[in-house]
Structures are given as C-alpha cells and as structure tokens.
TrEMBL record:
It comes from Mesorhizobium metallidurans STM 2683. InterPro entries: Amidohydrolase, Bact_exopeptidase_dim_dom, Peptidase_M20, Peptidase_M20_dimer. Signal peptide: none annotated. GO terms for molecular function: hydrolase activity; metal ion binding. This is Amidohydrolase. Mn(2+) binds at residues 99, 101, 134, 160, 355. The Mn(2+) ion enhances activity. It comes from the Bacteria.
Length: 382
C-alpha cells in the first residue's frame, strides 16, 4: 500500500507538469488527456471520458461482488495570474492552479498506480477526475451524464488541501462541512435619457443604492447557527461609461450563502421579493438569474467513520477544528446518491492561502493523501 521512491518522484514531476499547463473550468480537455495517458500503464478495466464535460472516470474491478467506492479529484484551474515564483510556474498568462487541484489529481493518480499493482479483493474502485469544480457545474454535469449510471457509487470520498492547518494533519467531521451558495444576478431595466434631461428617463440609480445595503441585511444568525445565511454583494454595473447618457439599465451581483439547502430556498425567495419591491418603487422591471450553484456539502456519518478508521491506522492526526467552512464545494452533490465524505488535509500553518497568486500545492502531501485513500479502499474492499 506504499508508493516507491520512484513513484513519488514521477508523481511530483507530473503534478508540476499539470501546474504549468492550467486549464480553467469547462476547458480541461488537455488535462483530461494527460490523466488518461498517465494512468494507461495501471491498466484500468474501463475508462469513461468526456463525463459532464471533460471528466474522466478510471474503474478498477475486482471481479467479485461488493460495493463501488469512488474517490474524486478536480481538474480545473483558476483565472488568476500566478506570482509564486516557483520554477514550475504556470506557462499560461492569467491562469493557474491556485487551489491545488493539480495536487489532488496527482493523489488520485497515485491511487491508480497502487490499484494497478493490486486490485481490491471485492467490489470496485472508481477514480473520478471531475471538471469545473470552481464554477459549481462540474459535479452536476457528471451526475447528469447518462454514463454516471455505470458508476453508481455506494461510497464517495474526496479531499482538499487546507492552508492554515498544520502540515499533514486532517480536519474531518460528520454533518455539514461546506456551505450551499449561488451567484444571484439582478437586472434592472428602466429607460435611458440625455444626461441634460434625466427626468425624461427612468434611472435605476436609487434602486441600486438601496439594493446594495439591503441585500446583505437579509443575512441572519452567526455561522455557528444551523439557520445561518449570508449575502455578499460582489459586483454592480450601471449604464454606459459615458457622460452624456443618464442610465436606464443596471445589474447587481450577489452571492447567497447558507449552511442548509432548505434555508437557501428561503433566502432566494427573500432576495427576489426585495428586488421586486425596490424595482417596483422606482418603476423598473426586474429579472433574476443564478450562476455557480453549489449545494451544501454534508458528510455522511458512516463514510466519516471509514475515513477516521483509515486515519487512525495510518497514524494521521485528525480533529474537527475549522469545520464547517463558509466556502462551497460541489462534491456535496455526490452525497445525494452515495454515502460521501470529504476531509481537509493540512498544507501548513503559514502556507499561502487558496486562490492567492503566490500559492503552490505542497508536493509532500501526495503520499499522505494517497495513503489515506488507499487505506480507506482496502478497509472497505479488502
């Protein structure tokens, strides 16, 4: 169940190759091809490609009856210009692996190497390399793909590296670990006018000025509360960038965030009612649409028990501090059809934060993450 020194060297070099060639959400075609090529000599029994976009599933069969255990990583990078200064920095301007998905992918590839040498005693293992995690449509696309029925996992596991946590320590717990969230775009329509005669138009200016503080005021509770909700205004746009036209159109963008999926429905209704009310008061039409939709990520107690057993057997320190998180993760969707759990693997207390331009995945996490996954697989499947 251990990687050789040569494995670690090759996996590290491959991770850095992926790091140099980042592809953002829904554009991961070359990254998917890299995964398929790297796993070829592990002889998976079946490979499904193009899942939900550019997703790849490598399936390792035992030939014996038993559960299907899925391990998931992400393929996509971020639209961030890298400033880490490492030798293997991104070669693509404005795009980089500032969330560590290249490292998560290398951990799953390490698992593939081990499964290539020794299949599970029963059941099967699926390595799911998922696209478009950052935009929230990746897991949804994979689950909606008719071929996902060929996988139908009984258990689903994932990890995410976490700066701020001591290196190699794990944070895991049952219940909610990541919030539900979605981007809400409010579009207000009035009527433009010459800037010398603004009274002849219908301007959204006052409506925007009212919406921007009123939307965050919809949030309630502290993050410790199960009913917690939060609204963050992220962007506003009004009229044209000229001096001669009084504006007739505007947009307000906000992120809605809750700990529970049912609370999200209530928050959406409240935000739409607020937008409709304010728009009506100023004789504006209004429409709302939604983007980057993430359901709450909820760890199943049974799946967590299997992870905790593996962590204890591998001598990996664990705790529940820092959980749940306000941030979202689209792994939660897999939990709607499987017993699922995600854990968070410490990248170091002083390591640059995720999504920062100076971040780089710590390569020494590759053997640690793969050990945890492999022990989990062996305990479930023998």
């Amino acid at each position: 169940m251990t990687l050789t020194n040569r494995d670690i060297v090759e996996l590290t070099a491959w991770r850095r190759k992926l790091h140099q060639q980042p592809e953002i959400s829904n554009e991961e075609e070359k990254t998917a091809s890299e995964v398929i090529g790297f796993l070829a000599n592990t002889r998976p029994d079946k490979v499904l490609s193009g899942l939900g976009g550019h997703g790849v599933a490598a399936i390792y069969e035992s030939g014996q009856a038993g559960p299907t255990v899925m391990f998931r990583s992400e393929l996509d990078a971020l639209p961030i210009h890298e400033l880490s200064g490492v030798e293997h920095s991104s070669l693509v301007p404005g795009k980089s692996h500032m969330c560590g998905h290249d490292g998560h992918t290398a951990i799953l590839a390490a698992l593939g190497r081990q499964l290539g040498r020794e299949r599970p005693a029963r059941g099967r293992v699926v390595l799911m390399f998922q696209p478009a995690e950052e935009t929230g449509n990746g897991a949804a696309g994979v689950v909606a793909d008719p071929r996902f029925g060929e996988i139908a996992p009984d258990y689903a596991f994932s990890l995410h590296n976490l700066p701020g946590v001591p290196f190699g320590e794990v944070r895991v717990k049952a219940g909610v670990v990541n919030c539900a969230s979605r981007g809400m775009r409010i579009v207000l329509e009035g009527k433009t006018a010459h800037s010398s005669m603004p009274e002849t138009g219908v301007s959204p200016m006052i409506a925007v000025s009212q919406l921007m503080p009123a939307l965050p005021a919809l949030g309630r509770g502290t993050f410790a509360d199960d009913d917690f909700s939060m609204v963050t205004v992220t962007h506003a746009l009004m009229g044209e960038a000229v001096f001669g036209i009084a504006p007739g159109q505007a947009q307000v963008w906000a992120t809605l965030r809750t700990r529970r999926d049912d609370r999200m429905a209530e928050l959406i209704a409240a935000a739409e009612a607020l937008a409709t009310k304010i728009a009506g008061e100023h004789y504006l039409s209004v429409r709302c649409d939604y983007h980057e939709i993430f359901v709450a990520s909820v760890n199943a107690p049974d799946a967590v028990r299997h992870l905790e057993q593996a962590l204890d057997e591998e001598g990996v320190a664990r705790g529940e501090e820092d959980l749940p998180m306000r941030a979202s993760e689209d792994f939660g969707l897999f939990g709607h059809s499987a017993a699922s759990a995600m854990f968070f693997l410490g990248a170091g207390e002083r390591h640059p934060a995720l999504h920062n331009p100076d971040y780089d995945f710590p390569d020494d996490l590759i053997p640690i993450g793969s050990r945890i996954f492999m022990r989990t697989a062996r305990n479930l499947l023998g």
